[in-house]
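BUG-551 | component: ligand-complex export | severity: low

The export step for alpha-D-galactopyranose jobs runs without errors, but we want the raw record kept on the ticket for reference. Input record follows.
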Amino acid sequence: MVKKWGRKFLWAAGTVMLLVPVGAFALNNGYARTPPMGFSTWNYFGCNGINEANVMAVAQSMVQIHAPNWEGKQISLQSVGYKFINLDDCWPATSRLADSAPTWNTTKFSHGFPWLTDTIHKMGLKIGIYSCCGTATCAGYIGSYGYEKKDALTYVQWGFDYLKEDWCNVPSQYNNAAGSATLYSRMGHALAHADSIYYLDSLKADSNWTTAKADSMRKVHGITFSLCNWGGSLTPWLYGDTCGNLWRTTGDINASWSSIYGNWTTTIALYSYAGPGGWNDPDMLEIGNGSLTNTVNQSHMDLWCICAAPLLMGNNTPAMSAATFTILSNREVIAVDQDSLGLQGHKARTTGNIQVIVKPLLVHNPDTVNNKKFAVVILNASTSAAAAGSIKWSDLGITDTSKQFRVRNLWLHRWLKSRSIIDTATPPDTMETVSESLYVASIPLEGTVHVLMEMGNPDSIPVTSVRPEDYERVAAQLGNRMTIRGNEVFIPVGLSKLQVFDMKGREIASVSASQPGWYSFSGRGVVHGGTYLIRLNTPAGAISRVVAFVK
Ligand code: GLA
């Protein structure tokens, strides 16, 4: 974590207050504040199966309501967070139009892309497209090299919300880390530029333009940008967030345990580079594909979620089994992936085949000594035998073993009663404290156990209303770590940075403080009424609050 903050922040020593955007050189386009979720055509449909009928069938499967889940809730893939439907390779016609614009294969997409994006949007979903940094895509279709501006503008005009840009057939002088950063920046800038051209054109065309329309327009348009150069010596994690929102860290995944485990192992080690707006991408999900067992499908989900990885389904969702749906739609595990603190999990310990992976989660209550929340996965990486595993205090970085945790098994959906994590005899929803290290008698080979561990009252004050005249009372409520009065916030720790996010997760203001004191966020679009997430990043960790400002 320390490494991450060190990279992301420019400390302004000696300056009382300085505004520094998150990652001063980052793209910071406001998208992917949590890892993107959706579907991609590649893993199951490949080159031959990409067409309008299959894409629409996937869209239907995403909004389809299923039988009540373990909570008694009727959910769909859409309602648990999956929203993008991403077209991968093989959508284009064989050549560009006379004006050099790309165009789709009319046999595969008979109604055309404007119709398709509009239809998908009307279903409440979003839609992505695919291109390549080189002269041709990996399957040999038109690439964007030399056509970045044209392509970006066309994708925006067609109504796409997401672009994955691949790395085949790249001119050799760019086939290195610096060249890759150059080509991805070129497209990243082209997308941002295209977005603003489109925005301004719409503004000019509408004489009844209002701020409300402008805001809703901004919500609709804008492209999440996915880099796909497969990691390795191209090191996209070092510059990915200056150009885009996520970057592939490995070669292509396939539906086997060795591939899933290999991609994940490379990616989990890169934890310090991930954060809101810029994510490591170990590739699309294979859950439900090939002959993967239920154990491996579940491990795949656990490993991606503890890694804060993008969750892009790659199976035949219109025909998936109930077991596959249950795994893909586990809201408790998805919440680990989507946690808005945005820290990727890291390997805390490896003991033989047992690996313990820890992901600190957002704590609303600012008492950082007593209130903590972690997701923890115990993995048995053995391919031949079940094994026992445990979570130790030291895995969590906790030296005071008198502390007590509540522990919840995220697949059994219950708080645990005894120190054994697999305790099927435990009645649901009893919250018992556990004070010893946790022990699991048997984890299947290639299997995982996923738990939530809570200490103290991490979520006890979810929303606080602040009026300028009663800040003393609020100050007392919030504790001495994050105190707000009217338009000002008290930053109690030096070398800290305060960020303000709207409830869509977009950062709308930030203040860096070299020393403790009161800082104002007026004049930066905040505190005109409304609810915001305020996060204070200190060298010792982050604390967050949801605050409703009253006009
Ligand atoms: C590359 C990418 C894959 C997929 C194919 C399409 O291999 O890594 O994810 O997009 O190209 O041709």
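Assignee comment: Attached the raw record above. The first helix runs from residue 2 to 8.
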